[in-house]
Amino acid sequence: MLDIYNEAEIYAGGPAAARFCLRLVSESERAELCTQCGACEELCPQKIAIVDWLEKIQQYLAVGE
Ligand code: SF4
């Protein structure tokens, strides 16, 4: 999900491009399934705020829909 967001922003494709690329992400790996348990954040060596980012990406994907 973060890759899709990054690629859309880096290459200026925006939310429409991100929605197109969403087909490359299996349904079991999509942001809407996040339960905000925080387990990934505890393991992340870069201390990325994954829960917050997944929420932002969900909102980003909905822009202009
Ligand atoms: S917080 Fe992380 S580990 Fe927990 S459900 Fe969401 S993405 Fe998965």
Explained architecture:
With 65 residues, the protein is mostly helical. It has one domain. Helices cover 54% and strands 0% of the residues. Helix 1 runs antiparallel to helix 2 (14-21). The longest helix has 13 residues, at 50-62. The radius of gyration is 12 Å and the shape is globular. The two termini are 18 Å apart. The structure holds iron/sulfur cluster.
List keywords for this structure.
binds iron/sulfur cluster
Write the layout of secondary structure elements.
Elements: H1 2-10, H2 14-21, H3 39-43, H4 50-62
Helix pairs in contact: 1-2
Residues 34-40, 50-51 line the site of iron/sulfur cluster (SF4).
Q: Count of helical segments? A: 4
How many domain modules? 1
What class do helices, strands and sheet pairing give?
mainly alpha
Give the number of DSSP strands.
0
> Kindly, what is the distance between the CA atoms of the first and last residues, rounded to a whole number of angstroms?
18 Å
Shape: globular
Output the radius of gyration.
Answer: 12 Å
**What small molecules are bound in this structure?**
iron/sulfur cluster
In helices, the fraction of residues equals: 40-55%
Give the SSE string: HHHH
Largest sheet: none
Average residue pLDDT: 95
- What amount of the residues lies in strands? under 5%
Low-confidence spans: pLDDT under 50, at least 5 residues? none
Compact summary:
By secondary structure, the protein is mainly alpha-helical.
